[in-house]
Design goal:
The protein is α+β, with helices and mostly antiparallel strands. Helix content is about 40%, strand content about 25%. A 5-stranded antiparallel sheet has the order 2-1-5-4-3. The protein has a 5-stranded antiparallel sheet with strand order 7-6-10-9-8, sandwiched between helices. A 5-stranded mixed sheet has the order 12-14-15-17-16. Helix 12 runs antiparallel to helix 13. The longest helix has about 45 residues. The protein is elongated. It starts with 6 loop residues before the first helix and ends in a 10-residue tail after the last helix.
Length: about 650
């Protein structure tokens, strides 16, 4: 009985051409395949090879002609090894369009019946393990579309996103046609989907190489934004590689920046308004003083008004400077042991005129027993006055404002309550943000700069405390609560020397005072004030003029600006200290720069005191009194 034929032998006995069979199989493989002789001549190629590299089946040439010049030697060496086993080599190969691509070439030796090596069978394919490892290492979601737009491969990041959004009908998995999904969304009126569809169709048609599109994705529970990069490829077959990057946080940051930019614009517009408000009565007051020289009562009234408006300007500028210093991390607290009653009294005295003018009632409740705090008394009083000013601004005439302080556990709780305009619930988390303003359509005049409450939060936080707000809505009023930690054992602090203004008044002496400022108006008005105090005055407008003035005028005190032309205040101070008469001269820096670094620099230059413009006239007078008294000449701080 003859032996049973194998299926392949059956094909041969039926007259099937084995060479035609092998060609048919090779032509339908997704890889480029060829056979080359030992001398490098190509004897056979499949269709994929010709499509990728170009050329014809009759004249395929030599494979080395497609290899990058820098890889040619490596390919020749690899072929000369003539190993009996298959091997792989990575090469840069030129495709029909002239572009080079880094691809993996698998080589298998071919021998004749005499076991002589006659050539090599070669195949080009992507190193699937390498490619997948590379794609999976990327955080972006990556997918490959075939020439019909069907998702044929994805990386792990894409699979993870798909799993997390399984309930979303727009999830794209392997086998789903990406273009069809875009078409459905486009037909539903999604302009972004229309844009993506048009871009991908252009890529697959070969009229475009790459594109980038930002689009929203309505994932469950929240909206997310993605940046899609798409790149056309043609490695034997046409397709598109997509990468999706989640840019939700970036879009949120951009939105926040736009919002902050809008707040800044609103802040600048409001600042201009707030500056004009006090300037208008000051300007009018100056005109009235010209016309009412013979009316002392009117002059006194105008002067009081101008003083109030000037203090409003000073407070405004100081708040701006404080915010700047806190933002830059250059703000320093000067804590001391102080009575709560003193802080509250200082804050109430500062706000009392506004409350009185508005016809409102203020009640204050604080513990009867003395309560000491370790805080910066000036800044804590500023916190309370800011909150009280805020309350009176949004409380109508006849309204009520209260300040209550009580000890709760190891904390001091201070609450400022009013019965004026409340705060919408959606704004209560934002009122402490920089430049935040609450729109009140019924009260258009209540808008402020949006920095007062931000400053309050920063100052309270620097003291280790918290501040919160509560309001039931637009009408029932608001309640701000400050909580500060209380130390159980405050160290006894020696009583500090009283300020100069409280010392027994010294006998006034006539001093020689040199004022140096390149602002002529500022120098002139300060000179008038110093002369009215009974002192002799000379004025210079820069450091050089000041040096020249001392040739005929030996000053006891020099009040000098810092930023001046020709010779600034630092150089002037150093020059004075080098003079024989300058050792005992009191040097007072009078400048608009008031940060800690500025004060350190003036001290190093030789100044005794550092005053920030606009300085209180009473402060300058106290320093002049100290200059007249040798025992008070050198003070640690002004």
């Amino acid at each position: 009985m003859p032996p049973q034929q194998t299926p392949f032998e059956t094909l041969l006995s039926a007259g099937f051409d084995p060479l035609a069979l092998l060609r048919s199989v090779a032509d339908h493989l997704p890889h480029s395949i060829w056979f080359q002789f030992n001398d490098g001549r190509i004897a056979y190629t499949n269709r994929r090879f010709l499509k990728f590299f170009g050329g014809t089946e009759d004249e395929p040439g030599k494979f080395i002609d497609f290899v990058h010049v820098e890889d040619a030697e490596a390919w020749s060496d690899f072929c000369r090894l003539r190993t009996p086993e298959a091997g792989d080599v990575m090469l840069r190969l030129r495709s029909a369009d002239g572009q080079f691509h880094r691809l993996s070439v698998t080589v298998s030796p071919v021998s004749n019946r005499a076991s002589e090596l006659i050539g090599l069978t070669c195949m080009i394919r992507w190193s699937e393990e390498f490619a997948r490892g590379l794609l999976n290492s990327l955080p972006e979601q990556i997918a490959v579309l075939d020439e019909q737009g069907v998702v044929c491969a994805v990386n792990e990041a894409w699979e993870k996103f798909t799993a997390e959004n399984a309930g979303n009908t727009q999830v794209l998995t392997i086998g789903v046609n990406y273009l069809d999904v875009c078409r459905r969304s486009s037909q539903a009126g999604d302009e972004c989907a229309t844009n993506v569809l048009n871009q991908l169709e252009a890529l697959l048609a070969g009229t475009q190489e790459k594109c980038a599109v930002e689009y929203p994705c309505h994932a469950p529970n929240r909206q997310r934004w993605f940046l899609m990069h798409a790149q056309r490829f043609n490695y034997g077959h046409r397709g598109v590689i997509l990468s999706h990057m989640d840019i939700t946080e970036r879009k949120r940051a951009e939105s926040l920046l736009r919002e902050q930019d809008n707040r800044k614009d609103e802040f600048l517009a409001t600042l201009a308004h707030e500056l004009r408000n006090p300037l208008a009565p000051i300007r009018t007051g100056l005109e009235l003083m010209k016309r009412a020289m013979d009316d002392p009562a009117l002059l006194a009234e105008v002067r009081e008004t101008m003083e109030r408006q000037t203090m409003q300007l000073v407070t405004l500028v100081n708040d701006l400077l404080d915010v700047s210093r806190i933002t830059q991390g250059k703000f320093q607290l000067r804590k001391s042991r102080v009575l709560l009653n003193d802080i509250v009294q200082s804050a109430v005295e500062a706000c009392q005129p506004l409350i009185f003018d508005a016809g409102q009632q203020l009640t204050v409740h604080i513990p009867e027993s003395p309560l000491f705090l370790h805080v910066d008394p000036h800044r804590m009083a500023q916190v309370l006055s800011n909150l009280l000013n805020n309350a009176t601004k949004y409380t109508p005439a006849g309204g009520h404002i209260s300040l209550r302080a009580e000890v709760i556990g190891d904390e001091l709780s201070m609450t400022i309550r009013d019965d004026g305009i409340g705060i919408p619930v959606d704004m209560q988390q934002r009122v402490f943000e920089m430049f935040a303003q609450i729109p009140h359509a019924d009260e258009p005049g209540t808008a402020g700069l949006g920095i007062g409450l931000s400053l309050v939060k920063s100052l309270v936080g620097m003291h280790g405390g918290t501040v919160s707000v509560a309001s039931a809505g637009p009408q029932p009023g608001s309640r701000f609560t400050i909580r500060l930690p209380i130390s159980e054992h405050l160290a006894a602090v020696a009583v500090q020397p009283a300020p100069l203004g409280t010392l027994e008044k010294q006998q006034k002496s006539r001093l020689s005072v040199l004022i140096v400022d390149d602002n002529e108006a500022a120098a002139k008005t300060l000179g008038i004030a110093v002369r009215m105090a009974g002192h002799e005055v000379r004025i210079a407008h820069d450091g050089r003029e000041a040096c020249a003035a001392t040739e005929h005028f030996c000053p006891h005190v020099i009040l000098s600006d810092i930023g001046m032309p020709h010779m600034d205040g630092y150089k002037l101070a150093k020059w004075i200290r080098q003079q024989s008469w300058g050792t005992n001269t009191m040097l007072i820096a009078l400048t608009g720069w008031g940060q800690a670094d500025d004060q350190k620099r003036t001290k190093e230059a030789g100044f005794d005191y550092h005053l920030v413009k606009p300085a209180e006239p009473a402060e300058i007078e106290r320093l002049l009194e100290a200059a007249a008294n040798p025992n008070l000449r050198k003070m640690p701080d002004a």
